[in-house]
# Entry
Amino acid sequence: MYNDLEVITMNSDYSGILIVDDDYATISLIGQILKNANISYDFALNGGEAIQKIKSNRYRTIILDVNMPIVSGLSVVQYIKNHKYESKIVACTSDSCVIENYNAFGFSDVIPKPIHHEKVNIVIKD
# Structure
C-alpha cells in the first residue's frame, strides 16, 4: 500500500521533512508536493512512530496531524518541546480551534485540511 511513496530517511542533518498522519491519502498528497519541490521526506502513521523517528533523525520541519491514534499530535509537540528539538512544527488539521490558535498549541504554522498545494508550498519554503 505504501510502495508508491518514495521515502528518503534522514540521518543527522536537518534537511528533510517528516509527515505524520494516520491518513495515507494525506501523506501521499503532501509527499507528492515535496517530491515535486525536490525535498526529501519521511513519514509516520501515528504519534508513537513519529517520536521514534524524531529520536533517530533530525528533521528541518515536522508536518503533524493533531488527531491520531496511539499518541496524539499534541503529545508529539510536547515531546519535541520538552526535548528541545529544533524542528519547525506545522499542524495539519481540520480542527478549527487549532487552526485559529496554532501558536497556543505549540505549532509555528498550520496547513488546514482539506490541503491546498499553495499552503504546503508556502510552509515548506519558510
Summary: Confidence is low (pLDDT under 50) at residues 6-12.
